[in-house]
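Methods, example record. To illustrate the input and output format used throughout this study, we show the complete record for VWA domain-containing protein. The sequence lines were provided to the predictor; the line carrying structure tokens was produced by it.
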Amino acid sequence: MSSTRSGDPRDGRHRHDVEEVLLGFTRALRAAGVAVTQDRAQTYLAAVAAVGLADQRATYVAGRATLCASPDDLARYDQVFHAWFDHRDGLPRSRPGAPPTPTVATLPLDDSGGGEGEEQQDDDVVRARASEAEVLRQRDVASLSANERQRLAAMMASLRPRPPLRRTMRHQRWHRGDVDAARTLRASLRHMGEPAAIQWRRRGTRPRKVVLLLDVSGSMSGYADALLRLAHRITVASPRGSVEVFTVGTRLTHLTRALRNRDAERALVAAGETVPDWSGGTRLGETLRVFLERWGRRGMARGAVVVVFSDGWERGDAALLGEQMKRLSRVAHRVVWVNPHRGKVGYEAVQQGVLAALPHCHDFVAGHSLATFEELIEVVARA
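The corresponding predicted structure is encoded as:
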């Protein structure tokens, strides 16, 4: 005796779409290096069915709890989750007439239930998603739409800044290097004067200070949000006290305290309330002189890696800017100038500010996309 179930056929199609999205997400995780087994994928589908797909936060936590097996998987999971579900807008929404928490069926992940064409289609979806993320990494941040800026903000969480290191006068134990005569002698005395194993030492290391100077003038307004997010990421990922952030425009503003909040959105709101000269003029020479006289000579810039984010459009005296850059290069360990137009086709350094500053810079790099931000992080880490 057979029975039939009546209902809106759109509900069945919606559940099928949801299943395809979730199963595709598990395959994308597997392609990214996360060991997602069939059991874990089935547990994930059951967990999403239990918490309901309408709750995006619960869906995110359910995946971390069921699909990740080690701390190394968490970073990959976050990156793939934001790329696959498009941060906020990528999750499938309930259609009109569908139940608010659709039931997700637990389906086997082997190939016995589907043909070769279905598997090929899923692979194409994975490659398409990866391609979209890679294209966004290369895009000029000033040309992004609001939705693309949200996706870029999520992708910035994948950045892993590393502080540059400097040698200290203190020594530490090591498995090779210089002979530690004092420790070797003490080890011999503990053995009643008999020869003991030779002890070694090397000079210790500690993070070198990094100073970020962000141009917030009108010509840099299209990059201000992305540069602030980059500065926030570097600040929270580095040891406390090793990164200082300033904005330069018509005046100098110390921004480190506002960016110490680990929540990026709150940090940017605090920064917006702190900086009084958004999208104003550019007087780099005068603001650099204030920085050197008030902060630099007191030790903040001495021996530090100083990174200047600016397009070089100087309304003031370019000779003054060159003079202050020369002073800065004398006290800093390394000066890096980041120009958002540096990596664009056909760019030539013809601005008076750039021409005055370049002779006193150790590195002149691009800074207009997520890919160039990653390259900048490597330049700073190797300084």
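Annotations derived from this record:
DSSP finds 14 helices and nine strands in the chain.
The chain has a mean pLDDT of 81.
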